[in-house]
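Quarterly update from the structural biology core.
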Amino acid sequence: MWFFFRFLIARYIQKIEPSKPLLDWVITRYRVLPWDIDANLHMNNVKYLKYLERGRVEHMIHTPWLREMFNRGFKALIANTEISYVKELKPFQYFKVETRISAWDDKYVYMEQLFTYKRTVFTAAVIRMAMVSTKTGKRVAPSQVLREAFPDLQSPPVPDSARALNQLVQAQRGETQAIADAHAAQDDINTNKIQEAKP
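Predicted structure, tokenized:
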């Protein structure tokens, strides 16, 4: 809902036009507010996701990303987020969210996001997004869509962090599927025992 209203404000009230190339960093400035704080008196881990989303929305608005994807009938959906909490953000502390598209391939668009203040990195995130047609609901290849939208632009090399994320997700899926299968099998055994025990 927040994204919807931000889009309307940017497009029709503020009338913001893209001011940065697609691959540029977009920087937004914030301050840690009282409702961002948890019992440890620093920014709650969940709140980082909120600011990450805001950073991505501002990136979409201030680069041609949102306009091109909206006009062409595509949207980007978050597939994975990998966050490294490096240093805590204290109450009322100023910070910046720095966001950029780092690369893309046939499956995903990769984004890099940083929480910084001056030269201090507080948090770093690697995002991968799947692209979906708003008409069919089916996934499309980012390499094809972006080639059509930005014919003079090529993807930079996929960063090592994004490659590592791909490997992590692949390993995680195999492990978690094995766990889910084992738990489901145990549930079946327990259900059968209960049914056999009934008179």
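The chain has two domains: 2-158, 159-199.
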